[in-house]
Amino acid sequence: MKIKAKLSALFLGLSLATGAVAQSDGAFLNVSYDVMRDFYKDYNPLFLKEYAAKHNGATLNIQQSHGGSSKQALSVANGLQADVVTMNQSSDVELLESKGLIAPGWDQEFPDHAVPFTSATVILVRKGNPKNIKDWEDLTKEGVQVVIANPKTTGNGRYTFLAAYGAALKAHDNNHDKAKEIVRALFKNVPILDNGGRAATTTFVQRQIGDALITFENEANMAAREFGKDQFELVYPKYSVKAENPVAVVDTVVAKKGSEAVAKEYLGYLWSDAAQELAASLYLRPSNPEILAKYKDRFPEIDTFRANDVFGTWPEIMKTYFADGGVFDEINKR
Distance (Å, rounded) from C-alpha 184 to C-alpha 176? Predict the structure, then answer.
């Protein structure tokens, strides 16, 4: 089946909305970022089976909302009635905490600081790697087109920016001027900033734009293995950022709806063996070390850094790098 047809089948087969959804009565809503459609499409039936077994056959109406992570967080802040949020960086959860929707200490409610699995930012290229892209600085070469999600609106894009910037800092003795120069050259090669990670994948895979797609490891594997195994290759840079995927209960919403217990069960089950195995099967790196080791053939070793260890807290990162007039705006002048 052609890539376009397979992508269309995937999108049509999901009754998952991008952005705000119209909830039906009694619906339980998980607001998530866009490339997690595939995981939750399979996770929800697993959870429903477990929930029915524990609650005398009880059923739930689980709905999903997917889109750029920051847009999703803003939708919840503006009234979208999410019972839970499953995001790709803690700044989106912290935004909801600052609005009083999520109580402080949310990252202690579940194991691993409420991060059930992680990913890494990698590079997807076309078969044969015709532009000979091996690491971040190769993306700055003249004639190379790079497809990226928008760092102003998506966690995927922010991780991309921080991965390239952090690698440049390491390679050039923590020289921020040099790092800016390299990342500026990279973004000059970006013809379009897509509004989400899945949109960027569609641009690269379906619209055939660009020589390289920068995205999460799980999304890159999905594109390479499901939508054209013989047409794409993954490139693992020498040094990249570790993408952490935090989850949280939206306290004000569950208090109003009476769904706190369900919300905690729903998120807690992400650490079950079944959910961790599912994560690994979809190229998300499980938090359970035994299951991660079991699937080590899927996850090449890669030297990664935590964004907070290099760039500070997420509020500091957002203010310095992604706020209006920040470093990203400085280097991305067009």
Answer: 12
Q: How many CA atoms are closer than 13 Å to the CA of 6, on its beta-carbon side?
A: 15
Contact call for residues 147 and 203 (beta carbons, < 8 A): yes
Contact 216, 120 (CB under 8 A): yes
Task: Give CA torsion, residues 222, 226, 230, 232, to 10 deg.
Answer: -20
Q: Using CA atoms, how far apart are residues 135 and 127, in angstroms rounded to an integer?
A: 16
Q: Which of 334, 325, 318, 9 is nearest to 151 (CA)?
A: 318
Largest CA distance in the chain: 63
Name the burial class of residue 143, with classes exposed (0-12), middle (13-18) and buried (19+) by CB atoms within 10 angstroms of its CB.
exposed
Nearest to 39 by CA among 303, 206, 221: 221
Closest CA to 248 of 264, 269, 236, 270: 264
Q: For residues 39 and 281, what is the distance between their CA atoms, to the nearest angstrom?
A: 9
Handedness of CA 204, 1, 217, 109 (dihedral sign): positive
Is residue 87 predicted with pLDDT exceeding 80?
A: yes
Beta bridge partners of 243: 119
Residues 6+ apart with CB under 8 A from 312: 320
Tokens of 145: 């087109």
Q: Considering the entire predicted model, what is its pTM?
A: 0.85
Write out the two tokens for 208. Answer: 């055939």
- The closest alpha carbon to 323, from 103, 78, 95, belongs to 95
Answer whether 95's CB lies under 8 Å from 77's CB: yes
Contacts of 153 (CB under 8 A, 6+ apart): 68, 70, 71, 195, 196
Q: Which of 64-78, 105-119, 139-153 has the lowest mean pLDDT?
A: 64-78
Strands 247-249 and 84-86: antiparallel
